[in-house]
Amino acid sequence: MSEAKKYPAPVTNPETAAFWDAAKEGKFMIKRCTACGEAHYFPRSICPFCYSDKTVWEEASGEGTIYTYSLMRKSPTGPYAIGYVTLKEGPSVQTNFVDCDLEKLKIGQKVKVVFKPTDGAPLPFFTPV
Amino acid sequence: MTIKGKAYIAGIYEHPTRHAPDKSTAQLHAEVAKGAIEDAGISKDDVDGYFCAGDAPGGAWPMVDYLGLNTKKLRHVDSTETGGCSYIIHLGHAAEAIAAGKCSIALVTLAGKPRTGAMPPRAAGAEIDFESAYGATTHNAYGMCAMRHMHDYGTTSEQLAWIKVAASHHAQYNPHAMLKDVVTVEDVLNSPMISDPLHRMDCCVVSDGGGALIVTTPEIAKSLKKPLVRLIGHGEAMKGPRGGKDLDLTYSAGIWSGPRAFEEAGITPKDIKYASIYDSFTITVLMQLEDLGFCKKGEGGKFVADGNLISGVGKLPFNTDGGGLCSNHPVNRGGMTKILEAVRQLRGEAHPKVQVKNCDLAIAHGTGGLLGVRHAASTAILERV
Asked: Do B135 and A82 touch (CB under 8 A)?
């Protein structure tokens, strides 16, 4: 079902292009600030916590747990589950859960990143481990 | 510096329509402006401040022109856009402008037709590539909050349903309400699941319509004929995932806007006789009641159960017009109607079946945007003088 779904291609911009370039190689990147040590998502050039410009790209494990979710029962493209995953590295990210029984999702469940193709760079989604 | 007591709401108007395929959006703005101006007993040529948000076609300057406001006199404009709570923020900003002498009679308008046709998309933020594909809508963004609230605090669907039940008890007396039937907890639980854990009856209506306010100085208000209602406290705040650090969707920006307003007013939630709480969804109300301090965080479920929000029955009468859950939700923005019913309660103009006795202190609180993603909140505390 999710394979048949057509996702919009990221527009990308100079600040986030490296994220999408890495996504094409199957890598899920976050940003980390070398001044305060905090990781964040989605990626910014200036650290949202300490305002340092010393932020660097870091490949994340792609593993995390479901913080919350909601199963949208109807939509023009069918049911889908939106939620947040708290990554092992700390930040929580908004996503959809795919390639699974959407009725069986649970808060706290372990998930990992999977990329789905678009007409441009692939998009990160999460699926139960 | 404070705005406490420096601005009065002298005119209110709520458009009776809930479906307006035969009218333009600008026309609805003009009709509510005319209504509020007539309610206040002033002339449109007296208006020297105008406030509108993203629903005003073209923004402030086309609206000022279309409405025929007196541009020789108009000297203060504010088009702050914070979704559904824009108008509660406008009320505070109007009070600030009045207190600073920047205007003396402010008009605030809201109107639109989401029931007639689709609304234009929101402007995208920097997050667009990282979120737009995941289909966040109002239903699932609030569903995510409810799901986590249930997980952390044991809140139940039955408790959420009581919020709709209370709204329906009030809506039966509102001849303009879209949904006038009194419903039960079972009715809510048996309505179709829209986005887990929110059922159809946990969701507000979609309606056309609008509303408007006239905000003015104490001196001008006292020269007019309406009962005196003044703003004594105001707060505004925003919240988002902020880089994904320590995400917590069980509280809203109301946790900041509320205390700011109460502090300015010099009162506590216990003093409030009537509460207008934005009810885009039942969970919105439950979280706001906690965030505003009507009960402890996590105890909102117990607080709303067993009719505690029903006028004449419970301890905190809320949304006595039926609110967004039953009456209307013009432009998918509930902030304006929250102020309007609070003013009716303070004036003693609510329906006799839901009028709160000796209603001298009321709160109007709203959120804007998506509670589970990024949002604003604003709190206004109003007093009958």
From this structure: yes
pLDDT band at A4 (very low <50, low <70, confident <90, very high): low
Global ipTM: 0.95
Decide: pTM greater than 0.95.
yes
- Residue of chain A whose alpha carbon sits nearest to that of B200: A73
For residue B149, the distance in angstroms to the closest alpha carbon of chain A comes to 9
Task: Judge whether residue A2 has pLDDT over 50.
Answer: no
Q: What is the 3 state secondary structure string of chain B?
A: CCCCCCEEEEEEEECCCCCCCCCCHHHHHHHHHHHHHHHHCCCHHHCCEEECCCCCCCCHHHHHHHCCCCCCCCCEEECCCCHHHHHHHHHHHHHHHHHCCCCCEEEEEEEECCCCCCCCCCCCCCCHHHHHHHCCCHHHHHHHHHHHHHHHHCCCHHHHHHHHHHHHHHHCCCCCCCCCCCCCHHHHHHCCEEECCEEHHHECCCECEEEEEEEECHHHHHHCCCCCEEEEEEEEEEECCHHHCCCCCCCCCHHHHHHHHHHHHCCCHHHCCEEEECCCEHHHHHHHHHHHCCCCCCCHHHHHHHHCCCCCCCCCCECCCCHHHHCCCECCCCHHHHHHHHHHHHHCCCCCCCCCCCCCEEEEEEEEECCCCCEEEEEEEEEEC
Interval B96-121: pLDDT, tens: 999 999 999 999 999 999 999 988 77
**A70–B contact, CB cutoff 8 A:** yes
